[in-house]
Amino acid sequence: MLDYKLLEALVVVLDQGGFERGARHLGLTQSAVSQRIKLLEARLGQPVLVRSPRLAPTPLGRRLLNHAQQVRLLESDLLGEMPALGGGEQRLRLAINADSLATWWPEAIGRFCEHYRVLFELVVEDQEVALKRMRDGDVAGCICDSPTPVQGARSHGLGSMRYRALASPAFMARYFADGVTPEALRQAPAIVFGPDDRLQHRFLARYGVEPPFPHHLCPSSEGFVGLALAGLGYGMVPERQAERELSEGRLQEIDPGPHLADGRLVDLSPGYVIDVPLYWHHWRQGGRILDALTDHLLRLGDAWLAPLPGPKRQR
Amino acid sequence: MLDYKLLEALVVVLDQGGFERGARHLGLTQSAVSQRIKLLEARLGQPVLVRSPRLAPTPLGRRLLNHAQQVRLLESDLLGEMPALGGGEQRLRLAINADSLATWWPEAIGRFCEHYRVLFELVVEDQEVALKRMRDGDVAGCICDSPTPVQGARSHGLGSMRYRALASPAFMARYFADGVTPEALRQAPAIVFGPDDRLQHRFLARYGVEPPFPHHLCPSSEGFVGLALAGLGYGMVPERQAERELSEGRLQEIDPGPHLADGRLVDLSPGYVIDVPLYWHHWRQGGRILDALTDHLLRLGDAWLAPLPGPKRQR
């Protein structure tokens, strides 16, 4: 068998983001940890991590991390059956898209954690990168908008996140006093999450408006809604997040215009929604807790999300 | 002078995250854009970008981006004085720490944008990386907790973000029924934003608890509070964000225990706060709009943040 002491040193150094912190975590000296990793590399005849531009595993290192995480998951099943073996909590490393993490995810897994003692290690990624992390074995599960699982994994449709084009009433008055027209949309700044966010593009395409169009870039779900509330732009906002912010009234003191009497955000195009389907991907052989989380998400998905366009798909 | 057509191709390809999108943005074919960048590299005798593992500027490319951004800022001053020259909006690229972006930043700049037509391009970074981006010229300003400006920049103290250790009442009942003791803190899962977040460590040090301690990792400000509200762990939460979530009551339907009658989150250690000072860093020669934004932030900082520990520092 592999020498798991060496493998553990690799896992902890990368988890903790450095040799010093990794050593502290393991209760070892930094040089002991460094020697373990050197020994691992000597046995394998290849480096397992690179130190610059930042600490990161090599492809071989990633493969080892993948293996170590699978072993951990299997171990935790074993510990669950034989509590006498002792041992710590289960750690589950998952990649979640930013809007899910900012909206339905914490509440949905709250109940799960009442039953299972599990520590989550969450990574915020959008779909392509999330699936790459699945493939690399860097995460045991992910939520993204692609239905196609990577090799060794399964995917399940959870539901759709519903987006509406929203802006503050003050913004509406400034840019859309004569209606939401193509001309006005070419002038009014949108808010875009990042280079991969095409939701605003899809909204504008309905009006025949092509890029380039003026836009702010804001890679934070809460910041995105914050900019809309503050009247800097309009953007496609998850319905649930908007409802929450609307009920909150935090901007009242800043811009107490007559338009704000009812809602802090209003719909540019009432009735128009974009539904983004969300899929849960997980390793096939991920152990009992990952299976239980899958069951939990499939049971609860409907409560938090709009229905998927077609029948639920499982692959 | 430099050939700014070539430089613009570089800027747009990197801004848009690819040759195809960059070309669309400029209204050119992909091969025309590719040729411009090749010509730029041929003239300079060095590559300006690398394509893998992902599209990124070389150090020389970064230097050129820096220069291009400064030229743009100066141009926009010129356009402000001579509107006949026409031209687009000013783009301001800034790095903001996640908690600021999720809390006070959108409201604070909302007013600024009523007066200045500026499009923000925000990058979420914590301090070391943010200052590195300043040094590289990748951003014109940043908010971080270090007072020391990089070369060619200035920094100003804005105020402090005040953090309290908070958890849901259900979590308190589960882990701290017998009080917040070192023994209980060794069992109760914390929530940690990422490897650089030491706030929970500082809180635990007060009780003599050393790492390792059980924790979730959640690199999203809103997700962080969401996990606390859902009873998965405790963590250091910005006071303003907590106030907002407390007034919101979004978890009422999930866990309507008697403890939730008043607040969704309660204080583990009433009266204990950690104040994280925040500094605004900006290029010295950033043009009129950057100067105006600096004035605006200095005037308004006090409204959104707690006072800095010492007198306001400017360097």
Automatic annotation (TrEMBL), chains A, B:
**PROSITE patterns per the UniProt record, alphabetical:** HTH_LYSR (PS50931)
**Keywords of this entry:** DNA-binding, Transcription, Transcription regulation
Claim: Transcription is one of the keywords in the record: yes
The record's section on SUPFAM superfamilies has: Periplasmic binding protein-like II, Winged helix' DNA-binding domain
MF (Gene Ontology): DNA binding; DNA-binding transcription factor activity
* Record domain HTH lysR-type: where: 2-58
InterPro entries in alphabetical order: ArgP, LTTR, LysR_HTH_N, LysR_subst-bd, WH-like_DNA-bd_sf, WH_DNA-bd_sf
- A Pfam family of the record is LysR_substrate
Describe the family membership recorded for this protein in Swiss-Prot or TrEMBL.
Belongs to the LysR transcriptional regulatory family.
Name of the protein this chain belongs to = LysR family transcriptional regulator ArgP
UniProt source species:
Billgrantia pellis
Species lineage: Bacteria, Pseudomonadati, Pseudomonadota, Gammaproteobacteria, Oceanospirillales
